[in-house]
Amino acid sequence: MSKKKKEASKAERLNEFTNKLWLANLGVYGRSVDDAQKRYEELSDDAKSLFDKLAKEGESVQSDLEKKVSDISDKVEARIEELKENLNDLTGLTGKIESLKDRLDSASKKAKAPKKAAAKKAPAKKTAAKKTPAKKAAEPKTEAKAEAKKAPAKKVAAPKKAPAAKKAPAKKAPAKKTAEPKATDAAS
Q1: Is 142 helix (H, G, I), strand (E, B) or coil?
Q2: Residues 26, 29, 32, 33: what is their CA dihedral angle, to the nearest 10 degrees?
Q3: pLDDT tens digit string along 106-115?
């Protein structure tokens, strides 16, 4: 029995060793789980505090951004209003410019009209002066007004009189005789 006892005691010791090994493994596992859980809680707490800290910083940044955006928005709105006013001013100026352009065109047409009328009248005046002064008085008053506006400083010419009847060309005087010695005087 001694051999059997020795073998039984070896088996018991091996059994005990494997049991202790098993328990040691369970202990390592339990400790690692505890360590992992402890680290997870620490990290979780750190993460939570870090998250809270970042959220507070985010709130601060957001309020700063909102303030800056509000300031920029106010400046942009003020600039837009200023541009609208300038545009309204330019629109008013455009109207004034158009009005001035129309007035200039009108004045230009008025200035050209008397020139054309004067150019057309010039030959008519010559023929009217030759024919009769009565036709001159029959000219429309509007043309006279236009000429008066055109050149207010002009002197009014006296109406031309009808030309006198043409004189006949003067007769030529007889040719002078050259002095010749008189035959009668020389004989005496």
Answers
A1: helix
A2: -100
A3: 888 888 876 6
| 161 contacts 131 by C-beta, under 8 angstroms | no
For residue 90, give the H/E element and its range.
helix 2-131
Q: Which residue has the tokens 């030759």?
A: 130
User: CA angle, 114 as apex, 112 and 117 as ends, to 5°?
Assistant: 110
Say which residue the tokens 């057309």 belong to: 120
What are the pLDDT digits (tens) for 140-182? 455 545 455 554 454 545 555 555 555 555 566 556 655 555 5
Residue 137: pLDDT band (50, 70, 90) is: very low
Buried b (16+ CB within 10 A) or exposed e, 54-75: eeeeeeeeeeeeeeeeeeeeee
The residue count of the chain comes to 188
Cα(157)–Cα(30) distance, integer angstroms: 135
Return the amino acid letter for 7.
E
Unique residue bearing structure tokens 């859980």: 37
Average pLDDT, integer, range 7-32 = 91
Tokens of 24: 């040691």
